[in-house]
Fold:
Amino acid sequence: MHAAPEVINVVPQMVPITDPRAVPVSAVDSDLPAVPVDRLSAQALRRRFASPPVWTPELRREPRMTERAPAQAAVLVPIVQRDEPMVLLTERATRMSTHSGQIAFPGGRVDPDDANIAAAALREAWEEVGLSARFIEVLGQLPTYTTVTSFIVTPVVALVEPGFDLVPNPAEVADVFEVPLAFLMDPAHHRRHQMDPGGPSARHWFSMPYQDGPHERFVWGATAGMLRNLYRFLIAD
Structure:
């Protein structure tokens, strides 16, 4: 297994990506091993977060595209305990001011009234999709990931018991769906993209497209980057 270096590209004049699907795939990481299925069970995930291995996150920061002051944010990485573990994701409403229409985890800015990062993630999951905290078991956190919009995001990984009813907030969420955790933790599904390689607006990112019936769920950018870090965390020995 090879370890890729942390991707840090800081470019003052960064060109927005209007259609990530149109940017060519430069590589697919099919040479890397998938996380073994036995590491994806609830008990194995609890053990891993209770006693983490020595590991290095692969992605920490995207190129900055705004003069906005950095802001703390939190997302919930909800692993639903079905017959096969599933990751709950949202499609952001097109009216959102940042990352509109993209696939995302439930989450948002940390409020002053939030007791901690995990509390912020739980509050956002309730406000965005109506996922009640009584179904959620927080396991731990991954390292922060700074987005192009200057949000310093802490991913909060959690187990979710089935039986919940979701009520998506239409002002923020266009759709809610689930993707198998095993699919996302298999680098054969991790595609690398690069735009303007070697140029002043060079940018690199991952995508993990998932065919959900008639829908292609195009997971990319920050969400794919945080999932890639989760992969590195779970595959580490």
